[in-house]
Design a protein that fits this description.
This protein is mainly α and 133 residues long. It has one domain. 73% of the residues lie in helices and 0% in strands. The longest helix has 34 residues. It is elongated, with a radius of gyration of 18 Å. Pfam families: DUF7144. Keywords: Membrane, Transmembrane, Transmembrane helix. This is DUF7144 domain-containing protein. InterPro entries: DUF7144.
Length: 133
């Protein structure tokens, strides 16, 4: 009776590498978008919609610094993803999850942008979790 060994085909290895690269590019682009969004909030709060009765109310300048820092971290993690580092996949899922929460909390201030970034970060999480390297 032969033992079952799992060998990866070249096609499946290429697909796995492609998904990690896809996640790295998406995380980098979404990180840049969050970086710019943070700069917008720090520089000029008039860009954002004012919502007086929102339960999760934040000072927009502080919120801008949070977005800016998370965007920079996301861009840094994407560099690790390009090198196929396991730590980068783990941190990439964590930072994408944090950014989903951050964008959820900022939906009343910038609704369409927040929803687009939530979708991008969800794709990042999916791409990093589906690959088994």
């Amino acid at each position: 009776m032969a033992t079952a060994t799992h060998h990866r085909s070249r096609g499946s290895e290429a697909a796995a590498g492609g998904l990690v690269t896809f996640a790295a590019v998406l995380l980098f682009v979404a990180g840049i978008l969050d970086l710019f969004r943070g700069i917008m909030a720090i520089a000029d709060d008039d860009v954002y919609v004012s919502t007086p009765n929102y339960i999760f109310k934040f000072d927009l300048t502080s919120w801008g610094w949070i977005q800016l820092v998370l965007g920079v971290v996301a861009m840094g993690v994407s560099a690790g993803l390009f090198s196929r580092a396991l730590w980068a996949r783990v941190v990439g899922v964590a930072i994408a999850a944090l950014l989903i929460v951050a964008n959820f909390l900022s939906i009343p201030y910038y609704p369409v942008w927040s929803l687009v970034l939530i979708a991008l970060y969800a794709f990042v999480i999916w791409a990093l979790c589906v690959v088994r390297e």
